[in-house]
Write the structure tokens for this entry.
Amino acid sequence: MKGYMGKYLVIDLSEESIIEQSSEKYVPRFIGGYGMALGIIWDLTSGKTLEFDPENVLVFATGPLGGTPAPSSGRLEIAGIAPQGYPLPWVCDSGMGGDLGQKLKFAGYDAVVIRGKAEKPRYIFIEDGHAELKDAKELWGLDTFAVQKSIKKKYGNETTIAAIGPAGEHLVRWSIINSNTENASGQGGFGAVMGSKNLKAVAARGGSKRISVANPSRLIEESLKIKREYGKVGTLGKVNDKKFGCKSTVKAGSISCMFCRLNFARCFKDVPCCQTGQKTVSGMETCVADAIKCKFTREGMSEHERFEIQFELAQYMNQLGLNHWEANIGFPGWFARCKEDGVMDEVMGEPIDVLQKGDMWLGSHLGMSPEFWFDFFRKVTNREGLGNVFAEGVPRAAEKIGGVKEAEMIYKHGYASHWDGRELHFIYYPMWIVSALIWAIRGRDPMNSTHGFCQNLSMPVKEWFGGQMPYNELKRVAKELYGTENAVAGFRTPELGYKDKEIPAIWHDHASMLKNCMVACDQAYFDGPLLWKEEGGGYHAGDYTALARLYSAVTGVERSFKDLYKDAERCFNLMRAIHVRQGRTRKHDESVIPYYEQPDFQPKANTPHTIDPNKFRSLMDKYYERRGWDKCTGWPTREKLEELGLKDVADELEELGKLP
Amino acid sequence: MSGQPQKIERKGWIKFRPDYCIGCQACLLICPLNHEGVIGYDLSRIFWISGGFEEVNKGKPAFCVQCANPKCYYACPVDAIYIDNKTGARCIDPEKCNGCKKCIEACPFKPPRISFDSKRGIAIKCDLCGGDPKCVEICPNEALSYVRKKEK
């Protein structure tokens, strides 16, 4: 089928074997990307497979839009049984931008599946229709930048590498897979999965393979249309930001990526270092790195000093291979709560100093010095002293040294909060009811690929964030998009806060799955998109059918948004089936409730500030019912699975006693 | 057209402003899609010069400048290269090209701004898309522009 390369690689590190398989078994049935990875994970692992077992598989998957000029479509999905998941290592995905996905396609592969465990350190080199296992003895122990430099030196600058640092080697549960300076598979702890397999890097140089496109002129037309739509909403980045003295330019790098890069990305060259022993460090920053840059600081620093030390810290984490989200949101929030509750006064000898109480618990509001954080990250990476405990991530560390209750107030399923109206993002009731429902079902943080609801529908609202659109207009948009204005009702009529909220939750479950299958950028492709205002007219939902049009142009198979929504539902149910096989029940889903019993951040709003557990449980009932899942167990029914063409999945679940 | 290089009027070319390039490679990918209907690195008339790791960004594109003294045009032994009347682009007639690569050798740039389609065995180069260059259109940050000389 056009758009796909038709083959994927299975690399068994134990057997030292590399075989090619036809992609037909998985695509177009599971679209590509995360969907394809889920199909492979279902087939190659069992419910008993654990994160660090050689039987765990790590899938690097591209999608049908990868390597085409469709804007912001060049992402790569990485998925497997995730060390960061808690209490069980829930299968999840963590995508990365950059150009590795495209290189894999031009080398001839839709995906690369890595299983087994190498006897000695290895890396994988892929080029033009073949792959090799290489000796990584010299690379083991190096940071992620040094590994990439070394491999590029050998194979040329056109080689793209995804590598782990010492954190991944030491199985730190919040370690990343890093590519270039700024692209990372951050959540999930997949760096540790590579470490457990003795795999240091995956490198690809592309090749002469070609991507066939069914309808080139339509793809060009659609790509240009979407690019123009960006122009409508985006503010294009301009060059030469010399604010910080060091050489800096606004640059970007993700393939076909036009959104974050234009809006957030900045390159900095040769920034002086003072903590890590390097003379200078260079790197690109996008949104999350930019966020961490603002956080760890101390009073009395000049803007320049603050920038330099934070930049050094952010890049140091990339080099070690640590997850910015954990460092930025998880650990600081936990430390602050532990201090407040009297569970902990200090960390590794550094007093916990809460500068600002009762608001966000970010690192910026902790008075702990930047020097402390360098030391903390170094010790975690090397599992030195207490670093060995923190390397297990907050929920597991809390089990050992206390602060379980405090951890539960930030973490669910093993991941710190994200667009839920409490820890990090200030969204209003009833928007966070939907966020709670989405998070309940997920295997990681709730809004990693559903920014469309909480972020994009909230920010323009006048009453909430001082935007231009009155809240009443949002209700009209909701009717257009979801078929009911109840999807966002509750702000003025609190009694409707739980009404019909399963409808937008499921809509965004599927829209986000679709993006992760294509694989397209969440911020650029709109799952309930940026709102547009017609000249002289009202607001309406953005171009949410864009992916369907691009997919049809590339593959030549005409699929409407509705058709692809059904495919995404198949993928979503497969994800659920995998979680059920791992042990997921409704009890795990309900674990989000105590988190939302903390008040939200809108004390002035005349709305409920905490979740009503009973109403939320009834809402969950409706969610399961609408999905065709059993509401007692939260498990998909045979009827639903068969409707989606997943009879084999239903049969296996039945054998395991996990079919309701 | 073998012979001594002479000046041939340039009517238009792609202008690249490196400071505005975000490295997204959309130009590189849309080029072969527009010409061949498939996408492949070796089919693009645009060349990607990958940056080193220290360069931080992922490199930059390089374009044919439609030389005033088009050495490729004079190097072709079978007269496959012609000057397009409307755009002034130095173009290759795929029917006439014999794949000898003399034009690629003659190109004064590094890397040469003429590609070789290994499957068809012919040289391919920028023809300014007949006056509607898709690379310029897809560029999200105005790094590319189509410069046209005014008719005298």
